[in-house]
Amino acid sequence: MLVNRSDNSSRRVDVWAEKKKGGRGYVIYAGVYGTDIKTYAGSANTQNTLDYRLSIAQRKYLMRR
Question: Mean pLDDT, to the nearest integer, of 15-25?
Answer without folding.
Answer: 91
